[in-house]
């Protein structure tokens, strides 16, 4: 059973501070799956709509599905003016039931951004294969590494500060990402998809407010500093990282594509 940690205040931080996806990522999805204005997309584990909202502009309709109602409430709020997005409370285990709902309609693409590790992919991928049209498929997307995992002096200072605050070292996960990608790819191929990869790389400069917001959005609610502790937490964080400004982050978006032949 999934342990959710995206409820309450964290959902608000996620919506406000989590990085979205640049147009190049959407362009890559359109090119890979031949998406047109006739297609319907499903964004599974949509969170606050980082991918759902730009997908709405590239398709006839998009469904954002997530088990955490607080994330969906934020997504819905952010979707003001977008009329072709539908929000569904549901997890990966609810996906097979969509087949009966969709009937003859097939999906152009199913996107899974930063969320697959909570899902049972060996059940999910075969179910998705029967939901997508030929030429369409699944995209598993990783939106860069956490900002405390880089080599830059400010990222290192952030890592040390957070380790001290959590009382345990924040370990860097060298190699783990590639092993995970390889496992995902093997599961997709076992489900009958043809897999490939597209990478979009860029640099983003963020302000201190976004450094704090990204930390809060990645912290389960019970581990967040209590409201009365936040001013002190943020002051100390500023002392640790500000000497290393500007906060430039390399962002490497990996799109693992799986096409149905
Ligand atoms: C890190 S957020 C990613 C949000 C967004 N897709 C993005 O790319 O930024 C992960 C989301 O996965 C959702 N999630 C967790 N377990 C899930 C499951 N079993 N099925 C579907 N979504 C799940 C969480 O509620 C959360 O909103």
Q: What is the fold's blueprint, element by element?
A:
Blueprint (H helix, E strand, L loop, with lengths): L8 H9 L5 H11 L6 E5 L7 H5 L4 E6 L2 H10 L6 E5 L8 H5 L4 E7 L7 H9 L2 E12 L9 H14 L9 H15 L3 E13 L1 H10 L12 H12 L5 E13 L2
Parallel strand pairs: 1-2, 1-4, 2-3, 4-5
Antiparallel strand pairs: 5-7, 6-7
Helix pairs in contact: 1-4, 1-9, 7-10
S-adenosylmethionine (SAM) binds next to loops.
Q: What's a concise summary of this model?
A:
With 261 residues, this protein is an alpha/beta fold.
- β-strand percent reads 15-25%
Please tally the helical runs, counting DSSP H or I stretches of 4 or more residues.
10
Ligand list: S-adenosylmethionine
Number of domains: 1
- The low-confidence parts are none
DSSP strand count: 7
Mean of residue pLDDT values: 94
CATH superfamily: Vaccinia Virus protein VP39
Shape-level CATH architecture: 3-Layer(aba) Sandwich
Q: What is the CA-CA span between the terminal residues?
A: 32 Å
Helix content: 25-40%
Strand arrangement within the widest β-sheet reads 3-2-1-4-5-7-6
Radius of gyration: 19 Å
Quickly give the structural class. alpha/beta
Shape: globular
Biggest sheet layout: 7 strands, mixed
SSE pattern, N- to C-terminal: HHEHEHEHEHEHHEHHE
In CATH terms, what is the fold-level topology?
Rossmann fold
Which CATH C-level class is it?
Alpha Beta
Structure description:
It is a single chain. The protein is of the alpha/beta class and 261 residues long. It has one domain (9-146, 173-206, 248-259): Rossmann fold. It has ten helices and seven strands. It has a seven-stranded mixed β-sheet, with helices on both faces. Helix 1 crosses helix 9. It starts with 8 loop residues before the first helix and ends with a strand. The mean pLDDT is 94. The site of S-adenosylmethionine has 22 residues, from loops. Residues 2, 4, 6, 18, 44-47, 50-51, 66-68, 71, 91-92, 113-115, 118-119, 143 line the site of S-adenosylmethionine.
């Amino acid at each position: 059973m999934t342990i959710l940690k995206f409820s309450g205040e964290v959902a608000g931080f996620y919506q406000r501070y989590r990085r979205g996806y640049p147009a190049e990522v959407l362009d890559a999805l359109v090119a890979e799956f031949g998406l047109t204005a006739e297609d319907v997309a499903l964004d599974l584990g949509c969170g606050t709509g980082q991918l759902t909202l730009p997908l709405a502009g590239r398709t006839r309709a998009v469904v954002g599905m997530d088990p955490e109602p607080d994330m969906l409430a934020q997504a819905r709020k952010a979707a003001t003016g977008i009329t072709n997005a539908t929000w569904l409370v549901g997890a990966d285990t609810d996906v097979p039931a969509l087949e009966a709902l969709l009937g003859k309609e097939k999906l152009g693409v199913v996107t899974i951004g930063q969320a697959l590790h909570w899902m049972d992919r060996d059940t999910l991928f075969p179910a998705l294969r029967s939901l997508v049209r030929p030429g369409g498929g699944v995209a598993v997307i990783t939106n860069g590494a956490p900002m405390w995992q880089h080599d830059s002096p400010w990222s290192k200072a952030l890592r040390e500060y957070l380790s001290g605050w959590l009382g345990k070292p924040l370990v860097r996960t060298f190699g783990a990402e590639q092993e995970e990608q390889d496992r995902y790819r093997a599961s997709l191929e076992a489900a009958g998809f043809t897999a490939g990869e597209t990478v979009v790389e860029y640099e983003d400069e963020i302000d201190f407010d976004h450094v704090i917001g990204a930390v809060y959005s990645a912290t389960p609610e019970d581990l967040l500093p209590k409201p009365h502790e936040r001013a002190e937490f943020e002051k100390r964080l500023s002392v640790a990282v500000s000497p290393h400004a500007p906060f430039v982050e390399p962002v490497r978006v990996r799109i693992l594509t799986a096409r149905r032949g």
